[in-house]
Methyltransferase type 11 domain-containing protein
Amino acid sequence: MKKRKYKFEGDYFEGYYKGIGDFSKTREKELRNWFKGILNYVNKFVPIKSGEKKEIIEFGCATGIVSKLLSKEGHHVLGTDISSYMIKKDKKLYPDINFRVQDMEKPLREKSNFDLVVAFDVIEHLENPKLGIKNAFRCLKKGGFIILSTCSDTPGISTDPSHINIKSPSKWKEILTQAGFHDIIVKRATVVPYLYRFHWRFSIVLPFKTGSPYIISPVFIFARK
């Protein structure tokens, strides 16, 4: 049976993901703290917080928080999402960032040469993740990096009906290898979401590495073209 492809417009973000798509000041602060922690973690594997400034494309930018944080590090960022609903809100909230509607499963309309592709919690939503990852490969200059995160494949962990492609870490590694990536690193990291609501300093110590798939342990994937 063919997997259903969801439309990530207003009814989605006002329904299942109402807490993410409300763009309130409180929620923005929580997401900012959350993704500061995520970026601190991925910086251990791909340097994004210091050194040479990069040309970056983010797929599935959703609320635009990651694109904004990367821009504050001095990088030139193109934030993209399949949702015109979210992109319209992002442009209003962060007018200094370049946002546009883009499906990761479709090629960019122009020739691109990015240093880094970022896609947090995106590939599990794709109808054809192999195609999406291949398109990401084409976006990169030689030697460029991709950073992905996805949900755990442990049964019962994910309850989101739009997670139509949940795979094992080894399967994701295989897909990236087939797309042409090398130097692939796959890690699980423990995340405690609610702690970020109390204080931003939790973003310094969380997430941390874990081998357990049973705690909230998203899978992070790093690879080079």
